[in-house]
Amino acid sequence: MSTATARLKDDLLLSPAHVIDVPVLRACEKLQQDHYDHIAAEYESHYGDAPSVEYRRRFIYEPMFEGLNLSGLHVLDAMCGGGQTTEYLLSQGAHVTGLDVSGEVIDSFKSRWTSCEAVNRSLLDSGLADDSFDCVAIVGGLHHIHPNVSEALGEIHRLLKPGGYFCFMEPHSGSISNLIRRFWYKHDRYFSDNEAAIDLRSIEQEFRSRFQVQRIKYLGNIAFLLVLNSLIFRIPVHLKRHYAPTLMWLESKLTRLQGQLTACFAVGQLQKRVLRSHVGRKSTTRQCGDCSDPT
User: How much is the pTM?
Assistant: First the structure.
């Protein structure tokens, strides 16, 4: 274990090996836990294959973390699942802590990423210390936590160091795909009952005093549907390698023409505002290029 990782472990309020209290889960948390405990194996096989890994790298992670130098940063992979995002973060030199409410997927996370901390708790009650992370990352998790999205954003703000970044990918409201998704969510066993797209405009308005929006990009079309989401469309995993390169090439071309209405998801970066009481303190969150500290 590196010195930096050991220091982070000491700073965290809870370490998974020492968690004694078991928090009482709310209805949305229990729903999420049961849902992912049930589909964990299928989910891992469809979202952990090579075409899905490549899709996430090109169309989710690279735009989601654009402009950030992750090397040496302490990053919380919140609602981490088996750690697909952790794999990318580690490749960029980040120190990662995984957080998930599902015992099944956090066990998978622990077995795959032995150098990382793993916390089997809800994002709404993480038990982690204030100002612990340079970056919090969530890929497709917030829309599972309705009706407590605002509370989750408040917890993310608490966990971030001043000047730190919340980087996310979520299905967004106000799109054509969301009209279809709203019907699909109600009739497919792979979705839990409380799933709904994220209203980014409302979030921006509600949290404008605590977060500054650095960027929002609207992405996702044909390869998002048929490569990344093969589980939802019941496409056998072994077939994906035959058509994935063509569909990802096509998606890269169509992306240039997309906006909020036609995209399937949004990626974004929200930066925790630095209060006057924090001015003068050094932040470790760096930007690519000049690697300057945010002020």
Answer: 0.81
